[in-house]
Design a protein that fits this description.
By secondary structure, this protein is of the alpha/beta class. Helix content is about 35%, strand content about 25%. It folds into two domains: about 140 residues, P-loop containing nucleotide triphosphate hydrolases (Rossmann fold); about 70 residues. The structure holds adenosine-5'-triphosphate.
Length: about 240
Amino acid sequence: MGSSSGFLQIKGLKKSYDGIDALRGIDLTLQRGEFLSLFGPNGAGKTTLIRIIATLLKPGSGSVSVMDFDIEEHPEDFRAQLGVISHQSFLYDDLSARENLEFYAALYRVDDPEAKSRELLKLVGLHDRGDSKVSGFSRGMQQRLSIARALINDPSLLLLDEPYTGLDERASILLSGHLRQLHSRQRTIVMVTHDLKRGLESATKVGILSKGRLVYFKDRSEVDIDEFEHIYLRYLQGAQDV
Ligand code: ATP
């Protein structure tokens, strides 16, 4: 199942918006079960990359394939295996937390939608707010629910764009623990974050995106934290090359 070429393979990926080059040629391969933490300054192209992998945005040129299938050619099959946690919550304001989860559970043909929704509400600490409408939720509560929503189909590829934003410490700890558990079950994870500590703690690969290029990509085991902090800081300060 594509193990020689990688679980997720990105080749020559470029994207521009009205003349602004957001991605200038990204090549990246992840094996199944790897956990990539991706860092980078504001405007580096991180969200653009996540949105393209999530099939929410079309690439300009280049390709993204998962298990050797181009995601643009089989988007429905691919989305069934995908979980996305991004700035966009994909939640319905007028539905309760439970109804949102049950809706997505039904969409993904989860075996027992009620039980799965209960389990996930508990996981994100919203079991006592299950019957409240999402419109009355705080930003952090919406973020928790969007995490539960992204996990409903037990995705084999999980994409997270700054998932800790808006979460309190307890919810952050719960999320980190759950990511570790998913990782131990061979789920492949790509996480964009500005949180160095959380980004480095579970990663197997560490990357820095700067000005639309993947300027750093290493095995976590080869990353010296002091050196990494220095390099990352230089890119945050606008360095072209470190
Ligand atoms: P941040 O850390 O601030 O979230 P990012 O690394 O996620 O940044 P992107 O949001 O991918 O960066 O943006 C990359 C570049 O593309 C930026 O120059 C941004 O201004 C531009 N860009 C992103 N989305 C659009 C859009 N919809 N229309 C025009 N330009 C865009």
